[in-house]
Amino acid sequence: MTVPHATAQSHRAEEQAPSSVPSVRDQLVTVGWFFGLSLALAIVSIVAGVSSALLPFILALGPTVIAIALAWREGHGALARLRHSLVTRPARRRWYLILGLPVAWSLATVAIAVVLGAPTTGLFDKVFPSVLIVFPVVLIPAIAEEVAWRGFAVPRLMSAMSPLRAALVVSIPWTLVHLGLFLPGQMNGSLVVWAGVLSIVSYSVILTWVFVRTGGSVLMTALLHAGLNAVAPVMAGVDLNTEWVIRNILAGLIAVAVVSLGGFRSVSRSRVQHAAPATAR
Fold first, then answer.
1. Count of CB atoms within 10 A of residue 131's CB?
2. How confident is the model at residue 126 (pLDDT cuts 50, 70, 90)?
3. Which of 102, 168, 206, 215 has the most crowded Cβ, counting Cβ within 10 A?
4. Does the bond joining 155 to the residue before it have cis omega, within 30 degrees of 0?
5. Which residue, among 21, 32, 65, has the nearest Cα to 157 in the 3D structure?
């Protein structure tokens, strides 16, 4: 009969067809290259003496270029999936409420500083128009970082581990890349390093939680990331070092709350790993 013969041909064709997603090993190798090249870029930039004004943009945009190049080399629709993550919106509109987190976080930082004895005179004098100017400035670097670290790295790590573990693994190279900003003469040179490390690890947990819960939306994580940076003028009336420590301890507590309240439970890995437009599948 012709039907079994046709079925056998179909099975053979499926076996010979290339997989739509690389193997776990290949994905981990690719993300390993991404981590290594991003760290190498950071080291070269620091050794080369890149100015404090330029270094943050190199550390934000450089890994994005590396991620895009590796996704293009990987094939299997990887570049299309990465591009699609930039326009993916959460299925539930309530997720847009998370974009109010930076405002609540910054106001809580100021409130705690006041309770601890910070002066209240002129506390919010620097908010406007600075807060309106800062957001557009930090948005592009935030988008770049989220494309690279959440959009590219996290789904590949999730092929072999839980989303929470992926968030913690990503936080290691992401932290190392940012350490150059704490060198003398750089943007964060006068700030304590431990609070900066706590900040980056906490951000990784919070942003990865939003990423996986919104079905792999880099759009949402980029907006939240930009918001966390853009509310700096709200806290500008507080002593810089005091504000730096309080805000990052709060970020750590938020990350702990996300994990403790089950933010990473029952997350579908495949929904994030394979999210892509139909034409790329």
1. 18
2. confident
3. 206
4. no
5. 32
Residue 119 has, within 13 A of its CA and on its CB side, a CA count of 6
Q: Which one-letter amino acid corresponds to residue 16?
A: Q
Task: Give the Cβ contact number of residue 91 at 10 Å.
Answer: 10
Length of the chain: 281
Contacts of 78 (CB under 8 A, 6+ apart): 22, 71, 72
Residue 8: pLDDT band with limits 50, 70, 90 = very low
Q: Which two tokens stand for residue 175?
A: 């932290």
Mean pLDDT to the nearest integer, 99-111: 96
Phi and psi (nearest 5°) for 136?
-60, -30
Q: What does the pLDDT look like over 156-192, one tens digit per residue?
A: 999 999 999 999 999 999 999 999 999 999 999 999 9
CA distance 73 to 69: 6
Here the tokens at position 125 are 């004098």
The angle that helices 218-230 and 101-115 make with each other, rounded to 10 degrees, is 30
Q: What is the pLDDT of residues 148-164, one digit of tens each?
A: 999 999 999 999 999 99
Contact 264, 162 (CB under 8 A): yes
pLDDT level of residue 281 (50, 70, 90 thresholds) = very low
Tokens of 218: 């880099």
CA neighbor of 275 nearest in space, from 218, 215, 221: 215
The domains of the chain are located at 18-276
- The two three-digit tokens of residue 64, written as one number: 């994005």
Tally of CB atoms within 10 A around 224: 22
Helix (H) or strand (E) holding 9: helix 2-16
Please, are residues 151 and 225 in contact by the beta-carbon 8 Å criterion?
Answer: no
Distance separating alpha carbons of residues 247 and 242, to the nearest angstrom: 9
Whole-number mean pLDDT of the chain?
A: 89
